[in-house]
Amino acid sequence: DAKTTQPPSMDCAEGRAANLPCNHSTISGNEYVYWYRQIHSQGPQYIIHGLKNNETNEMASLIITEDRKSSTLILPHATLRDTAVYYCIVRVGGGNQGGKLIFGQGTELSVKP
Amino acid sequence: GAVVSQHPSRVICKSGTSVKIECRSLDFQATTMFWYRQFPKQSLMLMATSNEGSKATYEQGVEKDKFLINHASLTLSTLTVTSAHPEDSSFYICSAVTSGSGDTQYFGPGTRLTVL
Predict the structure, then answer these.
(1) Chain B residues near any Cβ of chain A (below 8 Å)
(2) B90-116, pLDDT tens digit by residue?
(3) CB A47 within 8 A of CB B2
(4) Min CA distance, B15 vs chain A (Å)?
């Protein structure tokens, strides 16, 4: 699976949009981009995933560049409860057994009042 | 939907004893479950992949005789840490795959193991 590069930390003001970047320049054509977050001492929480089209759900939006070498997770109105470590992971999707996820160091997002 | 539970949430044991951790998918059937370990201030490290009805596949460097994994049903996988030592103290997290949602992995809340 392709590796990802994320900034180690970011700050965001409460109520503002949080834009978390991720580089995955060696991504293959059949690899999906997944985003998870982990609040301290809890299991990771699934946020969103995509292949090449932009995706949006109730939690966030995922913007993938046309060449698929990078993506941005957008939390439209960050709250204090969004403070967490955010992980961007690429892996092969498809099938009903699921590919393993390899976690990097992620981005520690701090939402400040 | 897609809820994964773990039991216990915390366990303290003496060195040399064995500890069993359960991972259950509550509202879906999971043919594949994964086990991770996380040390303080570090990221999650995949330990093994568990497929229902077959032997687990361990990542390089993970001792299969020390970390016994059983996936006897589509909703339950167990991790047994045998002859635990203080260096096994860690946060153990499982995940389960739902085939109905593009094989997205959903994670349990984790189990904090402390070996004295």
Answers:
(1) 2, 4, 6, 31-32, 34, 36, 43-46, 49, 51, 91, 93, 95, 97, 99, 102-110, 112
(2) 999 999 987 665 678 899 999 999 999
(3) no
(4) 23
